[in-house]
Amino acid sequence: MAGQGFEFEDFLPIIAEKLGEDGLIAELCNGFRLLMDPARGLITFDSLKRNAAFLGLNGMRDDELRGMLMEGDLDGDGALSEMEFCALMVRLSPELMEESWRLVDEALQQRVGSP
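^ thats the sequence. predicted structure below, dont judge the formating
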């Protein structure tokens, strides 16, 4: 598998459209619980490696799995909390990020335009 990349299809916009905001967050939380270490309540390297097959990632190398953790690890503890995981999933969805930036821009425009 060396030299091969993984290609992921972004289903989050479809899920968000069908389930709404609350439904999307609930599904992301379900995904988090599937991958987390129940003893720590976090997604750790070991729990990600153990559960990678659920995501179709069973061929990934250890350094690739560690890279996934580092991408979302905002507090530097080497693991992902539920909030870090959800933020990472949304951040990795180009379409959802585009929509988020559009909403932020609209809110700023309204604020600048109001007295």
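The two ends are 58 Å apart (CA to CA).
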